[in-house]
Every structure is written in structure tokens, then in C-alpha cells.
Amino acid sequence: MITEQLTTNPAGSRDVDLGFHVEKTWNRDELENSGLALAIKTLHEMSFEFLSFRLVKHFHTGTKQKLQEEEAKKTPSYEIFDRPAISR
After folding, report:
1. Residue 60 pLDDT
2. Which of 18, 29, 44, 54 is the most exposed place for a label (fewest CB within 10 A)?
3. Distance, C-alpha 44 to centroid of its chain
């Protein structure tokens, strides 16, 4: 189960590294029903968005409120904190 709880490791990193088994021979249906697809779907349902190669949630640094994608586009980058979920 994926949760939003943050933990801090001794190095200070807050991202999570996950590994998934995927076969080169899998067809589209097998990929869409894989653990990887389920994890990405779950993270999207938790309001994480793709930013380059990772999934993040955008937060306003002053108010600490979550920003929707359109709000984040209109907010200066120095006022946004991106909380990462996963690298792909």
C-alpha cells in the first residue's frame, strides 16, 4: 500500500526508490495491468503529477497549501515546493 507519510533517512533524502518487474515481451494489456501501472495510477489518484522524470505534488512555500496544476503554472517557481513521490 502506498501512503503519503514522509520519512527522513540519515542522508536527508525524501524520495522513494521503487523497483518493478517488467518483461520486454509483455503486451499492452499486460503492461496496463502490471504493478508499475497500478502504482502510477494510485499516485495520480493521490494528486501527484509528472514533472520531468518524477511524480510530484506542488505546494506553496508560504501557505503550505497544495497547488493544482494550473495554479502551479501561474505561481512563481520560487514560491513552489515540489514534494516528490517516485522517479521513472
Report:
1. 92
2. 29
3. 7
